[in-house]
Design a protein that fits this description.
Blueprint lengths: L9 H22 L8 E9 L7 E9 L1 H17 L8 H28 L2 H37 L1
Antiparallel strand pairs: 1-2
Helix pairs in contact: 1-2, 2-4, 3-4
């Protein structure tokens, strides 16, 4: 029984359509700390640690959800881009996909080890925030680069 966990090819376009603007706008809102008031809500939270209150396990907090919206959009769209089938999905593409995923994990954790050793305080928090997304981003970059190399070599062989 062959099990395939990839999305259909048509999801790749949807993923790119969501990924590019959400990544750009998400980065801009983080950089300039833009939080519109209409996105402030009381939302349920786990592990509340407020300076003026005692620590509690569950409760409600007032939060601007813009960062959460962009984070969710980036994760979902990255998954769609990364794990959608190619138009012609064969064993060699699967091999490239696996190698790219392994490479992305190695690079990601290499950067994380470097950060553990040399980056501290609030800067480390920023590294950890971006680290949530980098495995998928590294995978997408390397996989598409390898696919483009494959297409170029096939084109030149003709």
């Amino acid at each position: 029984m062959k099990v395939n966990f990839l999305f259909p090819n048509k999801f790749k376009k949807t993923g790119w359509f969501l990924l590019i603007p959400s990544a750009i706008l998400g980065f801009i809102t983080l950089k300039y700390e833009y939080e519109p008031n209409f996105l402030d809500f009381d939302i349920p939270a786990v592990f509340i640690d407020d300076l003026f209150k005692y620590k509690q396990l569950l409760g409600m907090v007032k939060n601007n959800i813009l960062n959460e919206i962009f984070g969710i959009l980036i994760i979902i769209s990255s998954l769609l881009v990364a794990f959608s089938k190619e138009k012609l999905e064969d064993e060699y593409i699967s091999k490239i996909r696996l190698e790219s995923l392994v490479w992305a994990v190695y690079v990601n954790y290499g950067i994380l080890l470097f950060a553990f050793l040399f980056i501290f305080d609030f800067s480390f928090l920023w590294v950890m925030i971006f680290n949530m997304f980098t495995v998928l981003i590294f995978f997408i970059i390397r996989f598409n680069w390898q696919i483009s190399k494959l297409k170029k070599s096939a084109y030149y062989e003709e």
